Amino acid sequence: MLDSTASSIDRLPHIPEKKLDASGNLAPADFTAPTPFIVRGLVRDWPLVQAGLESSDAARSYLLKFYNEQPVFVTSGPPEIRGRIFYNDDMSLNINVQKAGLRDVFKQIAASEEEAEQLCLYVASAAAESYFPGMLQENPVDLGGQSAHGWIWMGTRTQIAPHNERNHWRDILDYYVFRPDERTTAHIPEDKRGFLGPMTPKMAQAIRGKLKEYFKR
């Protein structure tokens, strides 16, 4: 019997790969390519990558050398969700978002790695310069004169559906009002009421946390 999932994936367009030259660099033309491509081994010599190849503990220890003790936003959920961040039946999120010290988060991640059913612990899109000043200087990448922001994702095994964050954020900020007194109100037009509904306190808390993190950058 054929694996329908595998055959469906095989039918998807394949992303092209680019090769590094003898010096370990991309060709100049690659930096202006109009479509995405994969580069294998581009940052294999990074100290962070080498630490990760050694062990999870080594990678965490390397990151903590640069950590400036600023609290991070951590997403957490019980083992029952098996790392799948999604919605409950009432459209509330099945996770909690709160601030915590990264050292404590790493301790929980390390302890959970030994468990058959892991906790969901996820620090998403932490700006490297905001939390790990100096790390990018030790882990540089030549982008042919192009600039890029450095972000890092850390956590246990997680499963997150693909999402278009720009459109989602535009809808949220167009139609929901996040008041200073922690109340949230909505002015949802008729044509948006099919997919925008009441904002639960838990969802509002998560969005406020993301907005505060963004405006601190």
How would you characterize this protein structure?
This protein is an alpha/beta fold. The protein folds into 3 domains: 14-40, no CATH class; 45-161, no CATH class; 165-217, no CATH class. The protein contains 8 helices and 10 strands. The protein has helices spanning 4-11, 47-54, 56-64, 102-112, 128-131, 135-138, 165-175, 201-216; strands spanning 17-18, 38-39, 72-77, 84-85, 96-100, 120-127, 151-155, 159-160, 176-178, 184-186. The strands form 4 sheets. The chain has a 4-stranded antiparallel beta sheet with strand order 5-3-6-7, with helices on both faces. It has a two-stranded parallel sheet with strand order 1-2. A two-stranded parallel ribbon has the order 4-8. α2 runs antiparallel to α3 and α3 packs antiparallel against α4. It is globular and about 60 Å long. The termini are far apart. The model has no long low-confidence stretch (mean pLDDT 79).
Task: Give short descriptive properties of this protein.
217 residues; alpha/beta; 3 domains; two-stranded parallel ribbon; 10 strands; globular
- The tally of beta strands, per DSSP, is 10
Our estimate of the beta-strand percent is 15-25%
> What is the distance, rounded to the nearest whole angstrom, between the alpha carbons of the first and last residues?
52 Å
What's the multimeric state?
single chain
Number of helices: 8
Q: How would you sum up the major sheet? A: 4 strands, antiparallel
Which stretches are low in confidence, meaning pLDDT under 50 for 5 or more residues running? none
Q: Indicate the mean pLDDT.
A: 79
Order of helices and strands: HEEHHEEEHEHHEEHEEH
Structural class by secondary-structure content: alpha/beta
